[in-house]
Prior knowledge:
The protein has helices at 20-30, 44-53, 78-84, 94-99, 104-117, 129-133, 137-148, 177-195, 212-219, 236-248; strands spanning 5-10, 36-41, 58-61, 88-91, 120-125, 159-163, 203-207, 226-229. By secondary structure, the chain is an alpha/beta fold. Helix 1 runs parallel beside helix 10 and helix 5 packs across helix 7 (137-148). The structure holds phosphoenolpyruvate. The site of phosphoenolpyruvate has 13 residues, from strand 8.
Amino acid sequence: MALKKFVAGNWKMHGLSSDLEKIRAIAEASRNYPNVDVALCVPAILIERAARAVPGFAIGGQDVHHAEKGAHTGCMSAAMLLDAGASLTIVGHSERRDAHRESDTEVQAKAKAALECGLNLILCVGESLEVRERGAAVTTVIAQLDASIPHESTDEAELTVAYEPIWAIGTGKIPTVGEIAEMHSAIREQLVHRYGAAGNQVRILYGGSVKASNAGEIFSIADVNGALVGGASLKAADFIPIVAAAALV
Ligand code: PEP
């Protein structure tokens, strides 16, 4: 059976109280597409207000610390995200792997902590342009995935993998249909290798410059089970057509 499509927005460092209206508009419009799971991952400081503003709609964090508690100034535990009203979190986004020097081992520890605490997870992997150009994209991403996903078998509904080529994020550039298909098929194979048949139930999102005009084509590629959307998730007018495209496939 085809997996239910999942479209998640990543607001990154955007969003103030005055933007709660936008979250309400997105949650409201998403109800018209019950065959698509929709979520918004907002700045941590906005999670509680967002969750209260849109009960029943999935609000997520963008990162989590691997420890339960302790001397980690400026960090948030999975329990804190959950307590604020988040039902999921992103881990391993390339902007964190790059700007905060997060290693695969650290991402794996974060993933484990989030799942153990009851948060659903979007785990990001993706290659740089340099890696893509020297023909090592698939091997690099699969190695990254292998070193970042939790070892324990997981409830497939809780784990989502997002393939986000770094060079496609926020640039307007996207891989070809063939390149996306090749990568998603390799990720699927690796998930089945890791989790057995349950690996077929893990959703694999594509992320990187997804917008209304390219969403339909991307969603029709085999093993693309949705999208992680940055810039185009900030306004309902840009985001909802992407959800609508997912509903059609
Ligand atoms: C992202 O940062 O996760 C992302 C996919 O960004 P954008 O859609 O803006 O390329």
